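[Automated response] Your request has been received and processed.

Submitted sequence:
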Amino acid sequence: MYVKHPNIKLPDDPDTVVWKYLDLSKFLDLLLSKKLFMSRSDKFEDQYEGTFSEPTFGEIKKLAENNPDFLKYYKTHREHVAISSWHINEYESFAMWQIFTQNSEGLAIQSTVGRLQKALNPENNFNQYIGEVNYIDYKKEYIPFDDLFFPFLFKRKSFQYEREVRIITDTSHTGQKLNDGLKINVDLQHLIEKLYIHPKSENWYKKLVIELMKQLDFDIAIEKSDLESDILI
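Generated structure:
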């Protein structure tokens, strides 16, 4: 279930718009399973995911001189944390279409921070937290380590374009082993406000998506991409 965490910050406005760009296969898996896939934190392309900046790591190393398990715990903790990434933006993003969809058969889920909070179902055995990512200089800036979630809420400035809000699940207290990740129960009617179809997709594909939604009995608005608008000159 979603739990508000005192140390994790979110945009003040629950109507802040967030997006998830994904391929049709991943979207179908979401619809059929009614579960949201979360990637294990150390499986992301960014090898720094869940690690510390240089100033913080220097301090942790000093603390670990007489307690090697202290450092080992932080390293292995990444294997028990799963993340679902969402992009803050009032509008759809051309760059996000290119980065996160493999071809012209991609989709974008439009939601809000408030909807994400409501979508997380309480029957899971572990809590989910939602937080906004901070982008810092890992060579100079400090990441606090008095909270186990902080390493997963900081990224290098190179990733600032992502403007990320993330759902974070920590399974360490359950003893559950994560392979590539974890699927959590979600209420799709809360999770998905609108669905956008890739701006370069063919008409047959758009019809297929609409038909699939009907067959699966999902009453979710399907929007034409704003990037597909007709030229006016």
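Summary generated for your ticket: The chain has a mean pLDDT of 88. The two ends are 51 Å apart (CA to CA).
If you did not submit this request, please reply to this message.
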